[in-house]
Amino acid sequence: MRLHKLAVFTVLAIILSIGCSRKDPAPEAGEGPQLELQKVQEGTVVNHTFMAMDTLYTLSVGVRGPWSPETADRVRAAMGHAEAAVRTVESTMSSHLASGDIHRLNVGTREWVQVEPSTMDVLVAAVRVGHGTGGAFDLTWPALRPLYRLKNPQWKPPTDAQIEKALRLVDFRAVELDVHGRRARFTKAGMAVDLGGIAKGYALDLAAGALARDGFLDHLVNGGGDLRVGGARPDRKWRMGIRSPRKDGIYKSGTIKAPSFALVTSGDYERFRMVDGVRYSHIVDPRTGRTARGAVSVTVIGPDGMLADALATGLFVLGPEEGRKALVHFPGYEALWLDEAETVQATAGFFAAWD
Ligand code: ADP
Ligand code: MG
């Protein structure tokens, strides 16, 4: 991906990782993942960009000291491992890909389905966030999906009867997990699960973990504006910003105190449809079967991407008042809610997390 495209995508992203420089990065020639180099004081910032999970990913690492062909090889290998980790999450957890765990679970009836350890980790977390948010985050929301095909130009809001019928199959408590046997099943026939609100966050964690394991503790993984960050660049800390949901521009930018954290946003301004002046977003409230109206955007900061991602979706549904109560179950996670007028509500620690 060339830089101008990268810039466009990055501006569209909900959260910007303000890492790109005044100077244009130079491509580094070689086999394997394409690298873009940006010389900074005391070292180099290296970026690698690719599309996966319907999202643009940019992996960045900070390298101190002089750049050499050996360093290029080490970075390229690490970027390859991190990219592969994201692609593996996509292939095992996508609802569409026939070989994946989630697809096999959804097409089955009620029998046990064997899943990968990674899928089990995400299912366990999804159910945990289901409990912690009182069902505002619910991995079994797909029963409602046929009622919310927002891409269809003829789409109309569903009727009460349609919603009532679909809601009978929305219940995260009906997903049974045998963690030690690594199996999952539904206790109601006809259910389906979808990890669209959590798997991208998990992919951030795996990509960051791959970079760290290969020796690059200074990294930033940006998946469509959701970030997982470790350490710092050679010259300064990684900078990031939260986009204004209704105005153009940045609501807040800066750096964060923790040496390793995730910063994830759910907003209603990228995927939505307006009908009769009412905005319908891609997040549904599984408790009512209606489009979520708790907020316009929610940003969550916390130690890992998987929980931050699921929480951002769940707290979007809940809004600030109920959301604050839910966060008691998730120590270490802080949230910021913005509404139509960009009125700010945040947990006590949200602003304190920034430098
Ligand atoms: P994005 O993928 O746009 O960053 P989110 O992380 O907020 O957005 O996740 C939205 C996705 O989560 C939806 O596209 C859908 O797949 C799924 N989803 C929608 N509503 C819910 C919900 N209440 N609970 C769990 N998952 C949901
Ligand atoms: Mg999410």
Helix content: 25-40%
Number of strands: 20
This entry's quaternary arrangement is single chain
In the predicted model, the low-confidence regions spanning at least 5 consecutive residues are 1-15
The CATH C-level name is Alpha Beta
Helix vs. strand class = alpha+beta
Which short descriptors sum up this protein?
7 helices, three-stranded antiparallel β-sheet, binds magnesium ion, disordered N terminus, single chain, 20 strands, ten-stranded antiparallel β-sheet, binds adenosine-5'-diphosphate, T-fold
Structure description:
This protein has 355 residues and is an alpha+beta fold. It has a single domain (1-355), classed as ApbE-like domains (T-fold, Roll), CATH 3.10.520.10. It has seven helices and 20 strands. Strands 2-3-4-5-9-10-13-18-19-20 form a ten-stranded antiparallel beta sheet, with helices on one face. The protein has a three-stranded antiparallel beta sheet with strand order 1-11-12. A hairpin with a 4-residue loop joins strand 16 (284-285) and strand 17. Helix 6 (199-213) crosses helix 7 (305-327). Residues 1-15 have low confidence and may be disordered. The structure holds adenosine-5'-diphosphate (ADP) and magnesium ion. Adenosine-5'-diphosphate (ADP) binds next to helix 7.
